[in-house]
## 1
Amino acid sequence: MKMTKSNEPVIDAIHVSKLFPVMKGIIEGLFKRSEQKYVHAVDDISITIQAGETFGLVGESGCGKSTTGMLLLQLLNRTSGTILYKGMDVASSFTWPGYISLILNVHFFMPIGYGLSYIFRSKESRDSLKSVINKSKEEARIYKENLDDKEVLDRIKNLRREIQIIFQNPYDSLSPRFNVMDIVAEPLRLLKVYPSEAEVEQRVLKELDSVGLVPPEDFINRFPHELSGGQRQRVGVARAFTVDPEFIVADEPVSMLDVSVRVGILRTMNKLSKERGTAFLFITHDLALARVMCNQIAVMYLGRIVEQGPTEEILHNPLHPYTKALIAAVPKPDPDAHRTEDLPIVGEVPSGIDIAPGCRFNPRCIYAIEECSQIDPQLETVKKDYYVACIRYKEINKIK
Amino acid sequence: MMVLLEINNLKTYFHTRSGSVKAVDDVSFKLGKGEVLGLAGESGCGKTTTCLSIMRMIDNPGEILEGEILYENAKEVMGSSDNTERTNNILDLTDAEMRRIRGNHIAMIFQGAMNAMNPVHRIGDQIMEVLKIHEPEVPKEEMWQRVIDILEVVGIDSSRARDYPHQLSGGQKQRALIAMALINNPDIVIADEPVTALDVIVQAQVLKATKELQKKFNLSMIMITHDLSVIAEVCETLAIMYAGKMVEYGKLRTVFKEPSHPYTQLLIEAFPSIVGPLKELKDIGGDVPDLRNPPLGCNFHPRCPKVMDICRTEEPPSFATKDGFVACWLYEVKKEK
Ligand SMILES: Nc1ncnc2c1ncn2[C@@H]1O[C@H](COP(=O)(O)OP(=O)(O)OP(=O)(O)O)[C@@H](O)[C@H]1O
Ligand SMILES: Nc1ncnc2c1ncn2[C@@H]1O[C@H](COP(=O)(O)OP(=O)(O)O)[C@@H](O)[C@H]1O
Ligand code: SF4
Ligand code: SF4
Ligand SMILES: [Mg+2]
Ligand SMILES: [Mg+2]
C-alpha cells in the first residue's frame, strides 16, 4: 500500500476553468463576422482531495461535472488555472502532448485502454480534439524534446498508473473482444508492473475477489456480453484498482445500474478506498448517493461551485438558494415524505453560453434582488471547510 | 372502485435461439378507474413486456401464450352486431378493433420515447398525427386548436407548438409526450420510465404536472419505474415484479411500510434516501436469474435470506395480505389458520 505524505493533497485544483468554443452555424460563419462564443463548462473552480477521501461533485446534467473530472485526469486541456497532482503541476507541461499521444494511440495519460473509446465517443470531444490536432505541431516539438528527459518520462509513466477512471456506462466501456482476465490484466501488462505473467494473473484473481466476483476463476474466461451490468461494472472497478492508483475519477459509476446492484459496487469502492487510501472524485447527480459515499461535496451550477462543505450539513441545512431547490426536488423513497409542491426555483437551466451578468443563478433565484444582476458572488468561507457563493446567504438563512 | 383493467395469468415469452425467455410468467393484477399503479422491479424483470402485452404490441420472437386482459370498455370498439357472446378480453379483439383501443382508450408513453421523437417534424404536428389516426374527419383548424389546448394543459406554451424536438428541453419533450398520450382522451395511460432520464428539478416539475392531469381527468395510470422514490410520490398501489413474476401487490403504504416479500424488503432497504438517519448501505447480493432457465421453485430463492426447503422445489402461490397479495412460502402458515 502506498500513501502520500500525510498532509499533501493528492489533487489540488486551483482556479481551474475550461471554455469550449461554440461551433458557429455555417450560414452565420459565412456571412457574419460574429465574435467567437464559448461554453463556460467549468468556471474558476478549486477542489482539494486528500488521500483516502471521496469527494462528491453534484449538480444537474450539463453543469460541468464530467468536464471537471476530465480536467483533473489531465484528459482535457484546461483554459486557465493550476492542477497539482501530489504537489506537481503535471498539467502545464503535458496536456497538449497528451493529446498527441492519444492521437497516435500511445495514450500516455489515459487510464490505459479506456480512454480512446471514451474520447472518441462524444461528438463534442471529437470536435475539440480536431482543433487540438490543428494547433499542436509546435507542442509536439516541445514534447519530443521532453521525451529525452528521464525524470519527465518517469512522471508520465507513474501518472498513467496512479490516476484511473471508472465510467458511467458498464455496457460499452469494456472491450467486447477481450475476456475478463485480459481486460483486468491489460494495465498491469502495459505498465509492466510485474515481471512475470504468473504474478499478473495472481494479482488479477486477487482483485476480482476483492470486488466480489467470486470465485474469480469462474469469471476470468468470460467475455463482457456474458456478464450482467453489475458484474461488468465490477470488472471496471477491478481494472481501475489493479495498478494501485492513488486517485480515481468515478463518473456516475452506478447511474446505469439497478439499485440492488449499485450498493454492492459502491460498498466495494468504499472498502478499497478505505483500505488503500485511494482518493476519489465521485461524480453524481444523485444526492442520496453522494450522501452515502462522500464526506464532502461541492454543488455545481453552470460551471461554478456554488456551495461546498460537509455532506450531512449541506443536505440538512443548505445555504445556497440553488442547493435548497435541488434538495427540495429530490424524491424521497417514503410515501409520507412528500416533496414540496412548489419548488423554490423558477424557469429552466439556461445554456452555458450567454451567462447572465452578476450571479449566474439570478434568473432562476427566488431570492434575487437588484444587486444580484451586478455582483458575481465568489465563494465565501462560512466556517472551516464550508463555502458558499451568494451575496445574500446570511440574510436568507438568518445567519449573523 | 370500478375495475377498469384486469390481467389474469398473463404469460409472454420471447422465443430466442437459446431458449424461451419467460419475460412475463403468470402475472395477474387489476387496475381501477382513476387508480395510479406503480410497477417496480430490477431491470429485465418484465415490466415493459407486461405493458406491451396490454397494448398487444408484442412482436416476433415474442408471443403472448396464455392469460386474459379484460378491459371494461372493450365493447365500445366492437362492431355493433353480435357482441353479446364476446368477452372483454383484449386478446380476442380483431386487429382493427385493437387499433381503436391503442391511443384512443389505452395510451402508452414508451421508454426512451423522448429521444425517439421525429426530429424533422414540429411537435405540434406530431401530436396532431396521433389525433388524425382516430378522428380523421375533424377539420384541420379544430385539430390544431386541440393540440394547442393540450399543450397548454401539460404546461407548454402554445408558441412552442411549432418548435422541433431539438428546440425543447428534456422536461418539455417529456411534457409533449404526455400531451400526445392525452390528446385522444384515453381511459388508461401507461408511462414507461417517464422521468428517469430527467434531472431532479425537471423530474419534480414533470411529476407534479402528471399528478395534476391524472386528477383532472380521473385517469387510470400504470407507472413503470425502477425508482421507488418516484413511485412513493405519485402512486396509490404498488406492484413489485421479480424475474417475470409479480411477487407482491398492495396499497402503496402497505408495501412500503410493511413489505411482505423478502425481495421487496431488500429492494426498499437498498434505496438510499437524503432524509432520515444516514444508513449503512445494503445490497441484495447475487444476480437476477437467467429467464431462459429460471431457478426451480421460488425464482428468488438463490438470493433469498429467508429461503426454506420448500422454496427450492415448489413455486409459491399468491397468499392474501392486508390489501393485496404476496407470492412467498413464508405466508403459507397464515393461510392455514
Ligand atoms: N467538447 C465539448 N465541446 C463543447 N461543449 C462541451 C464539450 N464537453 C462538454 N461541453 C459542454 O459543457 C457543459 C458541461 O458538460 P459536462 O459534460 O461536463 O456536464 P455534466 O455535468 O457531466 O452533465 P451530464 O450529467 O449530462 O453528464 C455542457 O454545456 C456541455 O454541453
Ligand atoms: N425482443 C426481445 N427479444 C428477446 N428477449 C426480450 C425482448 N424484449 C425483452 N426481452 C427480455 O425480456 C425480459 C424482460 O424485459 P423487459 O420487459 O424489457 O424488462 P424491464 O422493462 O423490466 O426492464 C428481459 O430478460 C429481456 O431481455
Ligand atoms: S446572489 Fe442573489 S441571485 Fe445569486 S443565489 Fe444569492 S440571492 Fe440568488
Ligand atoms: S418463497 Fe422462499 S425463497 Fe421465495 S421469497 Fe419466500 S422465503 Fe424467499
Ligand atoms: Mg456527465
Ligand atoms: Mg423497460
## 2
Amino acid sequence: MRNLNFGYGISRPRAIDMDNNDLRKSNAIIHEMPELQACIGCGSCTASCTAGGITDFNFRKLHTAVRRGEYRGAYEELNKCMLCGKCRLVCPRGINTRAMVMLIKRKLGDY
Amino acid sequence: MAKRVVIVGGGAAGMQTALELKSRGIEPVIVERDIELGGKARGWHKLFPSFTPAGDIMRPLADRIRAERIRCFYGQEVTAISSDGVMLRSGERMPADAVVIATGFTLFDAHRKQEYGYGLYDNVITSVDLERMMNSGKVLLADGSEPRRIAILHCVGSRDEKVCQKHCSKVCCITGVKQAIELKEMFPTADVFNFYMDIRMFGPGYEELYREAQQRYNVHFVRGRISEAAETINKRIQIKAEDTLTGRPLKMTVDMLVLLVGMSANYENEALASTAGLSLAPNGYFKANDSFLGVVRSEREGIFFAGAATAPKSLADTLAEAALTASMVDEYLKNRYNEK
Ligand SMILES: Cc1cc2nc3c(=O)[nH]c(=O)nc-3n(C[C@H](O)[C@H](O)[C@H](O)COP(=O)(O)OP(=O)(O)OC[C@H]3O[C@@H](n4cnc5c(N)ncnc54)[C@H](O)[C@@H]3O)c2cc1C
Ligand code: SF4
Ligand code: SF4
Ligand code: SF4
C-alpha cells in the first residue's frame, strides 16, 4: 500500500490569510505592548538569541508571524526561549523583547 | 539696468528663485505653462513631516510674487533654452541674461502598472487622489461608505525597471507614512497596512514620524511588494504579496488600495536639454554639473537649475535649493557684467 501514491495530499496552504486569520489575539497583544509594532525587522534579536544559536528558533520571524495572526506552533516554539534577555539589549527600537516573549506566551497559552 | 533672468516654471522652485533674485536687485521673469503658479505642491493637503497645510506655504509665496510685481507669463510653454534666452511654443523669443530651469517633475501615471488595476477598479486610488479627497474633506469608497481596511503600496513607478523608472522618488515613503497617519486619524478603527520594499526616511523628523505611525497609530508595516490586485464581486480589492519577514506568501482583501506614485522626469526634458546643449541623468532628470558644489549649475554657463528638475526632492529641499540658485545666478551675473 505504501507505494501507492496518486500525487494527492492534504497540505495546508502556506499563504498567510489575513482575511480568515483570527486577528483578535494579535490585536490584544499589540494593544498591551504597542511598541511591538515599532519593529523594523532588523534581526538583531535573532542574531543575538541564545536559543537561536543552538536551535532553529527565530524570534524575529516568530513575533512577526504572531502579529499577522499566525499562532500555530508559536507557543511551543517560544518554549525554546530561556528568557536570558540578550535580545532586549540589542533591539535598536528599544522593544522589551523579553517581556514580549512572556506576553505572547500568556496570550497564546490557551491557543 | 537690472539684469533679467528668465525662470522656466512657476512651481515652488521657480517662485522662490524669483523672490530671492528680486531681493538681490535682479529682474526675474517667470514663464509658466499652467494657468497659475504653484506647481504640484499647490495640490497637496497637508505637508510632511509637520502636517502644515500646503496652502500656508504656497499661498504666501504666490502673494509675494504679486506684491513684488514680478512678471509672470501664464499658459506659455518654453520649448528651447539657451544662456541668453528662451523660446516659447508660440514662437516668441524671450531674451535674458541668464536662465533658470525650474521645470520640476511629472507624476508617474499609475495606469502603467496594470497589475494594480488603477482606472479599472473603483477603489484603487493614488496618493495624489488621496490628497485631493482630503482637500475636499471626504475620503470615501466609491459607494460612499467609509473604508475599514486600507493598503498603501510604496514604490509605484519607482525602483522599477519594468516601467523604466530605476530611481527612488524619495518623498513617497514619508508621504505613505503621513497618509497612513491621516487615514488613522480619520478612521481610528480602520486597519492600515503599508507594503514596502525599503523604508527610506531621509529627512529630519521622518524616522520619528515612521515610529509614531507604527507605535502610536498601530499602522501595520509589511515588507513585501504587492504583486497583483484584483477586484472582488463587492468591489473590494484582493491583494497578494510576500511577507518577506516571515518568508511566506500573504493575501488579504482591503476596501481601498492607495498607490504611492513616484516622481518621474518630465517627458520634454530630452528635447529641452538638446536645445540647450545639456545632458540628462540616466533617470531622465537634468544632470547637475557636479554632486557637491555645482548642484544648481548646469554644464553651460548662464543656465541654472532649481528644485525637482534635477532629482526628486521634498518641498523643503526645493525651497532651500532655490535660494542657492539665486545666489549662484547673482554671482554669475556680477562676474560677467560688472567686473569689466
Ligand atoms: C504625492 C506627493 C506628495 C508630496 N508631498 C510633499 C509634502 O508633504 N512635503 C514636501 O516637502 N514635499 C512634498 N512633495 C514634493 C513636492 O511636491 C516637490 O518638492 C515640489 O513640487 C517641487 O517643486 P518644483 O517647483 O521643483 O516642481 P513642480 O511642482 O513640478 O513645478 C514645476 C512647474 O514648472 C512648470 N513647467 C514645467 N515645464 C515647463 C515648461 N517647459 N515651460 C513652462 N513651465 C513649465 C510646471 O507647469 C510646474 O508649474 C510631494 C510630492 C508628491 C509626488
Ligand atoms: S530572551 Fe529568549 S528570545 Fe531573547 S535572546 Fe534570550 S533566548 Fe533569545
Ligand atoms: S531587534 Fe527589535 S527591531 Fe530588530 S527584529 Fe528584533 S524586535 Fe524587531
Ligand atoms: S521613497 Fe520609498 S516609496 Fe518612494 S521610491 Fe523610494 S523607497 Fe520607494
